[in-house]
Structures are given as structure tokens and as C-alpha cells.
Design goal:
The complex is a heterotrimer of chains A (about 475), B (about 300) and C (about 300). By secondary structure, chain A is α+β, with helices and mostly antiparallel strands. Chain A contains 21 helices and eleven strands. Chain A folds into two domains: about 180 residues, Periplasmic binding protein-like II (D-Maltodextrin-Binding Protein, domain 2, 3-Layer(aba) Sandwich), CATH 3.40.190; about 220 residues, D-Maltodextrin-Binding Protein, domain 2, CATH 3.40.190.10. In chain B, helix 4 packs across helix 8, helix 4 packs antiparallel against helix 10 and helix 10 runs antiparallel to helix 13. The two termini of chain B are about 35 Å apart. Chain C is mainly α and about 300 residues long. Chain C has a domain of about 210 residues: MetI-like (MetI-like fold, Orthogonal Bundle), CATH 1.10.3720.10. Classes of the chains: A alpha+beta (about 475), B mainly alpha (about 300), C mainly alpha (about 300). The interface between B and C is large, with 97 and 97 residues.
């Protein structure tokens, strides 16, 4: 505030200097400037105050009767942020209203928006420690913004309010960074095949259940349907993930464990050869073909919509998006993992997103109450349903299932994923330097497909990139 | 002499024909180029009535199965906090002050640089120019830290967006005004001086009227750019109730679950209508308001 | 008296004072901070661990960054002249007594209003995709069009066209300048028998050189800092063929949080721009005519 005033004082000095030069009758042309500056001054103060952390409210809280069996709470104002689309905004706002009704005296201010640009904006807030009390976070944010645990609270500190027993220990472990449980996982997700059954019918074959059938489908599609038809389509990042699933199936070891890449150069080359063999066998289109389709992503690609591309390898949580994108009359089905890829059940699942409480939060207990309400208590989970994926919390899942609130396709896919995959995912897997559109994965997979890289070069670039990310 | 007149006649005749031809060519060029320029807007209007599949499967203008869902959904509000109209009101509640302050501060600064000699003028002008070149992305983080310290982030008055314009920080406009000012004849100011005007009176009664066309275009540009700006509000406006249109338009876009494109396009269309109207109306002022001879012969 | 005279001589300083204050607070501090960061390994969430020149060395030794610089140069050298010519040409035509001039002016300004809207991203790709509008049109003439979006040798061209297409704001400034050219001059010239094109080059162009200069400098600045086009249409691809330096700066600042590296790249860009602007300013005395005849 002090700086603010100093600033305005400077502005006034400048304006005054100006008006001393001005001559009597005409000086009115200059005066609007100082006036408007003083106008902005007064209301600026409350604005600045809301930015500051909510003060503990000592007077009221002492007298407040306990509303819940587990204890009392203080009146306060909590802030919460998330990104998403319409339905998520609506459901979360409704759930927050229900919470406020249940706990009068706790005010909740929400900030929400679309994903585009959201992380940039949150990053600046984490860096300046001005983030809201509760934030929806991506799993890799824990590593990216709080590698030393400085941004997010250790949720074990509030486990008396936030029921952690509802969560799978493996999932919780994924959210442990720097020895602290920095976020509560909301849902788990993994990659799985989806097929457009209509196109496979047209080609006169069933949807693939083995790798052998998939490889054969490439040739069938080409001869029966035409050159532009492919049984599967994979973007750069999809290729990377499928390669890891493949390698884990063949070699039976996690991609990265204990901060070290587990695969030798030869093994990585075998994985890249596998991807390349898919392209060579007309199973997947080249990256150049996909780029030439001029679509921002596969769900906006007309060739997916009309069935020219008949398969994808996507997150279970994205099922409804890809299903909805199809033109009418196409049948969308959840595929199976291909058991003949290798001797092991390769693949991983990861925390799709979570909620974290900021270290700067003045009311961690009340914040934890809000989270518990949204994620574990029937009243909250009924409203939230599967807006953030199939709930991981056993209580929430049971409640949603009982009430029939889950999308069937998504639930089926999620069930298949969780039943199949069993390798851990290293948190650096999604580091921006690797995953972003100018990251290593894109470079390697596109370079290979564009034939800028040989298999050996591609393997070298990938291994160097992964090791560099791990060394951070 | 006679041959000369004949030649002239012939020339006039051919010039007449040539004039007609060049008129024709001119309109042809204008219309052809115009079509290329307007097509996206027309497409956008058409697309607001299409469904997702149709939007991505062709670039025709006329929707096959027109639906009003886009507009119906565009009117939805989020938890009563914000709807498209409120978002537009929010936009203009900081865009208009920005325009006003930019005009005032840029004119004063340009006047100082354009008409006076003082110690360090050359160096300061070079600094002014150089601020044009540092990419904004890198200033973002230090600036954010600064505004955080001042407590202006999420200010209900959009202080981080407005206050800098009081200090002529949009250097483009200062530069533009300086360039225009150089073509205003000094004689006018000298005459004003003889009439007993001081420097401020001269600024207001001589320079500002002469600068009018340039000021109108500054105002137009600042208006359009500020209404379109996404990064600024994204960083500094956190309360949904205060979201401007640029952010509101993207509220329903969710990469995870997909979204209704007709709705997004309908909201963006509604949000650019004021810019279109303002431009259409202000351009007259912009062109007609030019005082005789801004550029000296 | 001495003091008074000093004040009088420097009265102009008072006019630029608000700007100077704004500059010191809102620009110099971030400016200086970024210069400082450029000599560190500043990582947004890990802070500074060492002071180093490495960033600058890396810029000129990392193939990806060198390529981005090269692409940025190509982009600027293609778009700046094309955009200025298009803007001036259309402004010149519009400056004649044309029916429906308001409509045309607005129409030409529409692309600038649409800016980086989602609609542009969708439509632009639809035009240039393999089986898009352009290749369909070329097909009528028996030409087998290239893969505009996915072939590294054509993608930059698509991004350039987007920028040239948005010539509205430069056109508007030219129009304002053209309106200021006194009618009598044209009349005099046409009595002397000068054709429209001759008039354009011998009267119009010389008289509006200050505005051409203004547009040139601002367009150079904007072209070198261009970010939107590749960001919304190609994301820098295919194979980094449209990765302009600003996109790279953005990615390293906000995707990888390498503030040190991003700042260093920004300063390299800044210095390149300064060089071009200084050249432009020095060249003024050969081709720009100011009525106040001071030159600079």
C-alpha cells in the first residue's frame, strides 16, 4: 500500500508540474489527469486488501458451535481454483454452494477458466506465492512447482479432516514429492485402445485383439478400403506412450525407476523399431500425413470423425470426447490390450489430476474440510460425479455407481486400464522439456517419421533428453 | 501548334477510356481482395449455426442443419457470476480508461519529444524507442512480481492494466504521434506564440486539433488491441465476476472433454461486434476529421 | 535568472516526465531484471544457482535456436515488405473517390480485428490442409498442390501469409497520411500530364515517407516479435520449420520455466532489433523527407 501511495504521489507531482506550466484559462485541459488519479486511489485499497490472505477471524470463531462431529471450524474465506469446461465449472460451483450451506461462516471464492493459458497464469502465482488456498493441479505440477515441497502443504498434516483411507496407497504415493503428500489424487487414468467398429466392419474384419491382428489390419485396410484408411492413428506423444507400454510388455521393467532410465540403447531402439514397423505396415499414418490433415488434435480431425482413421490409443478419461466427435452412425468401442505384445502386462496409469492446498493457506483445516466434502462425502460427490474422471475415492466411486452417475464408456475404459497396467510412472515422464510440443518426445517421434533421424539417432536423442530431465 | 492540340485531344480521349478501365480494375481489385478479407468473418457467422462435425468437415458458409444452440448456450451464465454481457461490460470498463489515458499521456510525451530541445533528449528518445523491442514475454514475470508487491493483482479496478497507460508506456503511440507531429508546420505554432499562447495553450489549441486524425487512429488501435488482449487479463484478473470477454470466450473450452464449437464461436462473434461497429463508425471521423494539410507540401 | 533560463530551455523535459516515471517503474525494472537473469541459470521454481555466460554461448551453438533465428529472419524479410506494399497499395486505391469506401475499409480491417481468434486457427488450417480449399482450387488447374502444413519447406509460407493478410492497421495509418497530401499537387501534376502511377511515385510516396518510415520500423519490430501466427496454427512445426524466436522464448519461459535462457534469447532478439532500427534511422536521411527539416 505504501508503494501505491508513493506512486500516486509521484503521479500528482508530475501532473502538478504540468499545470504550473499551463496558463490560466486553458489549464482545464490538463486537470482531468490528477482528478482521475485520485479517483483510482480510494477504491484501490479494498481491492488490495482482498488480495492479502484472509485474516483469521478471532471474535466469531470462538463462539461458533461445532457443526460436525469431527470438530469445530473457524469462520473464514477460502479461495479455490480449477480449470475445465462448462459442466465442470457448473458442478463444482454447485458443490461449493452446498458446502457453504452446510458450513455457514465459511466463504469460498472460486477462480476458474479454460485450460488454455491456465498453467502459465498459475505458474506465475506459484512463483510469487499468491496462488489460491486450494488448487486443482496436474500431477506433474508437484514436481514442476514444488520439487522441494515449498508450494503445497503436506496433506498428512490435515489427515484428521481429510479422509485419506479412501485412496489407493499406490496412487497416494505418486503424489509424494520431497517426502510430503502434496496433493490428493482425484482420479487415475491410463491409455487404452478405442476402435471405430463401423470401419472395421466395412473392411470385413473384427477389431484387433492381438498385435498380430492389428498388424494384418494395416494391409487389409489398404487393399479393401483404400490408401487413406488406417486402423490406428498415433500422434507424437501417443507414439511415445505406446512405445513405453510395448517396452514394458516385452522387457517387464518400468521405463524409469528410482530416477534412472531402465532401458539400454538397444532396447530403446527396439521400441522405436516397433513404432516404425507400425508405420511401415500401414497400421498408422505418418506424422506428416496427420499434420497435413490440418487438425489441432485427433478429436478435431475429420478423418477420425468420418472413420477414415479407425482407432486411437488415448486416455480412458478422453473416451467421451472421442466418441462425441464421431459422425452419426459410427460405433465406438473400448478396445482390449494386446496380450501378444510381450510376456508382461506393460503400461502405466497415472494420477490425472488432484487438489493441493497451498503452503500459504491460512486455514488449512477448513480447506481440508472443503476437499473432503468435494471428494469423499456423498453430498459433494453426488454433485461432482465424474466431472474430474472416474473418482478414485472408494466412497465417491461407490456413491456415484449407486446413483448411476458415471459415463458407461469411460467407466468401462477406466476399469480395463486399472485392471491391466501395473507399472509405476516416473513423475518426470511428463516434464515439459519432454512432453511439450517442442519437447524431446515430439522431436524424436516426428524426426523418426520424417526420416530426419535414423533409429539409432532417435534413440540417442531420446535417451539424452530423458537423462537430462531426470538429472534435474 | 495544330498537331499539338490534336495530340492533346487524342490523349484526352484515350485518358477518358483509360480512366474508365482503371476504375473497373480498381473495383475488381478491391472486391477480390475484400472477399479474401471478409470470408473468415462470414465463415465464422455461418459456423455459429453448425454442429461440431460440420465445422471441421468443410469450409462452406451455409450450415446444412442450422442450430441455434450456439447462441442459446452463449447466453448461459456461470453460477450467476458472469455472462457474456457482463464480460463485455468488464472489458470496456478498463478498455475505455486505457484509451483515454493513452491519448493524454502519449500526446504530452510526443509533444515534449517532438517540439522541444532539452538536456538528454536524444538519449531519452533512444531509450523510448528501445522499449519497443524487448519482447513482452520476458517482461511478464518481473512485471507480475512488481504488481504483486503493489497488491494490484486481481484489483477490482484493473489497476495493472490501466495505470501503466497513464505514463505513456505504450510506446508505439508516442512514436506514431511524434512522426505525425513532424509534419505539422511550425508556422502555426509561431503564430500562436505571437498571439500570446504559452506552450500548453499551443499544445491544446494548435497541436491537438492538427493531430486529430492520428489521435483517432491511436484511440482505435488501443481500443482494438486492448479488447483483444488475452495475456494481460489472464495474469491479472482472477475473479470470474470480473473476467473480460477475451477470457470469458474461452471459459467453456475444455481440452479434456471437448466442447461445443458453435458456442465458442458465437461468444467470440458477439464479443467482436463492438470493435467492428466502432471501427465502422469511427473511420469517418478518422478520415474526414483531417485538418487541411497534415502533411506539408 | 540563470535558473529561470535553464528551466525555460528544458521545459520540454516536463512534458516527458510522466513517460520517464512510467518507464523507470514499469519498464526499466523488468528490463534490468531480465538482463540480470540472462546471465544466470534462473529456473522459476529453483531460483538462481550460478552466474554464467552459458546462455549466450548456447544460443549460438544450439542448432534449434540457431534455426529459430534463421527462420525469424526469413519470416521478417518476407512479411515486412509484402505487408507494407499491400497496405500502401490498397490504401492508395481506397484514397480515390470510391463508392462504398467505408465498407471496403472495414472489410480490410476485419482480419486485424479477428487477430488470434480460434476461428482463424480453424479456418486457416482448413484452407491449407492437404485436401483443403487451396489444393482443391489448384486441382482444377491440374496442379497437384504441396502439403502446405506438413512439408517443412512450405509451412513458413503459410504463417507469412497470415501476417500479410492482417495488413489492416498499417493500411489505416497509410490512409491517414494519404489524406493529408494536398489535392492541388495531384491536380498540378495531372495538368502536366503525369499518369496516376507517376503521381504515386513522384508525389505521394515522397510526401508520406515519414509515415512509411513509421510503418517500416513498427512492422520490423512486430515481425521479429511475431508469436501468434505459429502459436495458433503450427505450434512451430513441422520439424521446427515455423519456430520463430519469440515462440521459443515463450516456450522456454512458460513451458520449461528457464527464465535465464529465455531472458538471454530475448536480449539477443532485442539487440538484433536495435541494429535494424539503428540502420533504419540512419537510412532516414537518404529517403525520408520531414517538413521540419531537422532529420535525425
Amino acid at each position: 500500500m505504501k508503494k501505491n501511495q508513493k506512486f500516486i504521489a509521484l503521479g500528482l507531482v508530475a501532473a502538478m508540474a504540468m499545470s504550473t506550466v499551463a496558463c490560466g484559462n486553458q489549464s482545464s485541459g490538463e486537470t482531468p489527469q490528477p482528478e482521475t488519479e485520485t479517483q483510482t486511489q480510494t477504491p484501490a485499497e479494498p481491492a488490495a486488501d482482498t488480495q492479502a490472505e484472509a485474516e483469521p477471524a478471532p471474535e466469531e470463531s470462538a463462539a461458533e458451535p461445532a457443526a460436525e462431529s469431527d470438530g469445530s471450524y473457524e469462520n473464514c474465506t477460502l479461495t479455490i481454483s480449477w480449470w475445465g469446461g462448462d459442466s465442470r465449472h457448473e458442478a463444482t460451483l454447485a458443490a461449493i454452494d452446498a458446502f457453504k450451506e452446510k458450513y455457514p461462516g465459511i466463504e469460498v471464492e472460486a477462480t476458474y477458466g479454460a485450460w488454455s493459458g491456465w498453467e502459465d497464469s498459475m505458474a506465475t502465482m506459484f512463483a510469487t506465492q499468491t496462488a489460491p488456498d486450494i488448487n486443482q493441479v496436474n500431477w506433474n505440477w508437484l514436481e514442476a512447482y514444488s520439487a522441494d515441497g515449498s508450494a503445497f502443504l503436506d496433506l498428512n498434516q490435515v489427515s484428521d479432516v481429510l479422509d485419506l483411507s479412501q485412496y489407493d496407497q499406490g496412487a497416494l504415493d505418486q503424489c509424494v514429492v520431497a517426502g510430503e503428500l502434496q496433493a490428493i489424487p482425484v482420479s487415475m487414468t491410463g491409455r487404452i485402445f478405442y476402435w471405430n467398429k463401423t470401419t472395421f466392419d466395412k473392411a470385413g474384419i473384427g477389431t484387433p485383439t492381438t498385435l498380430e491382428e492389428l498388424m494384418a489390419a494395416g494391409e487389409t485396410f489398404k487393399t479393401v478400403l483404400g490408401d487413406e484408411y488406417y486402423p490406428l492413428t498415433l500422434g507424437e506423444y501417443d507414439r511415445m506412450i505406446l512405445m513405453v507400454y510395448y517396452l514394458e510388455s516385452v522387457y517387464g521393467k518400468a521405463w524409469v525407476e528410482n530416477g534412472e532410465l531402465q532401458y539400454t540403447s538397444e532396447e530403446v531402439q527396439a521400441g522405436l523399431e516397433f513404432i516404425q514397423s507400425l508405420e511401415d505396415a500401414h497400421v498408422i499414418p505418418s506424422i506428416q500425413t496427420i499434420t497435413g490433415d490440418g487438425a489441432e488434435s485427433l478429436d478435431k480431425n475429420p478423418k477420425w470423425m468420418n472413420g477414415t482413421y479407425a482407432g486411437i490409443f488415448e486416455w480412458d478419461s478422453s473416451a467421451s470426447k472421442f466418441n462425441a466427435a464421431l459422425e452419426e452412425g459410427q460405433e465406438f468401442i473400448v478396445g482390449d490390450y494386446l496380450p501378444d505384445m510381450g510376456d508382461y502386462q506393460g503400461g502405466f496409469s497415472k494420477v490425472s489430476l488432484g487438489f493441493a492446498i497451498s503452503e500459504t493457506c491460512a486455514h488449512p483445516k477448513e480447506a481440508a474440510m472443503l476437499l473432503n466434502f468435494l471428494l469423499n462425502e456423498d453430498e459433494g460427490t453426488t454433485i461432482m460425479a465424474s466431472e474430474r474422471g472416474i473418482p478414485l475415492s472408494t466412497a465417491a466411486l461407490a456413491n456415484c455407481q449407486a446413483q448411476g452417475l458415471l459415463n458407461e464408456t469411460v467407466a468401462e475404459a477406466n476399469g480395463k486400464v486399472l485392471a491391466w497396467v501395473d507399472y509405476p510412472l516416473d513423475s518426470q515422464f511428463e516434464a515439459a522439456a519432454l512432453k511439450s510440443s517442442d519437447g524431446v518426445y515430439y522431436d524424436v517421434m516426428a524426426g523418426l517419421s520424417y526420416q530426419d533421424y535414423s533409429i539409432e539417432e532417435a534413440a540417442e536423442v531420446l535417451i539424452d533428453g530423458v537423462n537430462e530431465a531426470l538429472s534435474k | 501548334m495544330a498537331t499539338f492540340t490534336k495530340k492533346m485531344d487524342k490523349r484526352n480521349l484515350s485518358m477518358e477510356r483509360k480512366r474508365k478501365l482503371s476504375d473497373f480494375v480498381r473495383y475488381l481489385v478491391l472486391i477480390a481482395v475484400g472477399l479474401v478479407m471478409v470470408y473468415p468473418l462470414l465463415w465464422m457467422i455461418g459456423a455459429t449455426f453448425k454442429n461440431n462435425v460440420e465445422i471441421f468437415s468443410g469450409i462452406g458458409l451455409i450450415p446444412k442443419n442450422p442450430t441455434l444452440d450456439g447462441y442459446r448456450n452463449a447466453m448461459k451464465s456461470y453460477g450467476g457470476d458472469i455472462n457474456i454481457w457482463k464480460a463485455m461490460l468488464n472489458t470496456y470498463s478498463y478498455v475505455l480508461p486505457k484509451v483515454l489515458f493513452t491519448l493524454i499521456s502519449a500526446t504530452i510525451t510526443a509533444y515534449g519529444f517532438g517540439r522541444f530541445k532539452f538536456i538528454g533528449r536524444g538519449a531519452l528518445f533512444a531509450i523510448l524507442m528501445s522499449t519497443l523491442f524487448l519482447p513482452q514475454v520476458v517482461l511478464n514475470v518481473p512485471q507480475f512480481i512488481l504488481f504483486t508487491k503493489l497488491g494490484w493483482v486481481d484489483s477490482k479496478l484493473y489497476l495493472p492494466l490501466i495505470v501503466p497507460t497513464m505514463f505513456a508506456t505504450d510506446t508505439y503511440f508516442v512514436f506514431m504521434l511524434v512522426q505525425f507531429m513532424r509534419n505539422i508546420p511550425k508556422e502555426l505554432e509561431e503564430a500562436a506564440k505571437i498571439d500570446g499562447c504559452n506552450v500548453v495553450q499551443t499544445l491544446i489549441s494548435v497541436i491537438v486539433p492538427m493531430l486529430m486524425p492520428a489521435l483517432v487512429s491511436c484511440a482505435l488501435f488501443q481500443f482494438m488491441w486492448s479488447s483483444n488482449d488475452f495475456m494481460g487479463p489472464l495474469l491479472y484478473v482472477k475473479t470470474p465476476a470480473k473476467y473480460p470477454a477475451a477470457i470469458f470466450v474461452k471459459l467453456s473450452m475444455d481440452a479434456d472433454n471437448g466442447f461445443e464449437w458453435n458456442r465458442v464461436l458465437a461468444t467470440s462473434l458477439i464479443s467482436i461486434v463492438p470493435s467492428l461497429v466502432i471501427f465502422f463508425l469511427a473511420q469517418d471521423q478518422f478520415v474526414e476529421g483531417i485538418a487541411a494539410g497534415g502533411v506539408k507540401g | 535568472m540563470g535558473k529561470n533560463k535553464f528551466l525555460k530551455r528544458n521545459v520540454g523535459f516536463l512534458f516527458i516526465l510522466p513517460w520517464l516515471i512510467g518507464f523507470l517503474v514499469f519498464k526499466l525494472y523488468p528490463f534490468a531484471a531480465s538482463l540480470y537473469y540472462s546471465f544466470t541459470d534462473y529456473q522459476l521454481f529453483e531460483g538462481i544457482t550460478k552466474y554464467t555466460m552459458e546462455n549466450y554461448v548456447d544460443i549460438f551453438t544450439t542448432p534449434k535456436i540457431v534455426k529459430a533465428l534463421k527462420v525469424t529472419f526469413q519470416y521478417s524479410f518476407m512479411t515486412v515488405p509484402l505487408k507494407l506494399v499491400a497496405a500502401l497499395f490498397i490504401a492508395y486505391i481506397l484514397n480515390f473517390k470510391i463508392k462504398g469506401v467505408n465498407f471496403f475499409r472495414t472489410a480490410y480491417y476485419i482480419p486485424s480485428i479477428l487477430g488470434g481468434s480460434v476461428a482463424i486457427a480453424v479456418l486457416w488450417k482448413a484452407i491449407f490442409k492437404d485436401d483443403g480449399l487451396l489444393n482443391t482450387l489448384l486441382g482444377f488447374f491440374g496442379v497437384n498442390g504441396p502439403s502446405w502444413l506438413s512439408d517443412p519447406s512450405y509451412a513458413l509460407f503459410v504463417i507469412c501469409l497470415l501476417r500479410v493478410w492482417q495488413f489492416g492497421s498499417a493500411m489505416v495509418i497509410f490512409l491517414a497520411a494519404l489524406k493529408g497530401v494536398p489535392e492541388e499537387l495531384y491536380e498540378a501534376a495531372s495538368i502536366e500530364g503525369a499518369g496516376k502511377w507517376k503521381q504515386f511515385f513522384s508525389i505521394t510516396v515522397p510526401l508520406i515517407t515519414p509515415i512509411i518510415f513509421y510503418n517500416l520500423v513498427t512492422q520490423i519490430c512486430q515481425a521479429f516479435q511475431e508469436f501468434n501466427g505459429p502459436y495458433i496454427i503450427t505450434q512451430g512445426g513441422p520439424r521446427n520449420s515455423t519456430t520463430l524466436i519469440s515462440l521459443l522464448i515463450y516456450n522456454s519461459a512458460f513451458k520449461n520455466y528457464e527464465m535465464g535462457m529465455a531472458s538471454a534469447m530475448a536480449w539477443v532478439l532485442f539487440i538484433i532489433l536495435m541494429v535494424f532500427t539503428v540502420i533504419a534511422f540512419l537510412s532516414q536521411k537518404y529517403w525520408v523527407y520531414y517538413s521540419d527539416e531537422e532529420g535525425r
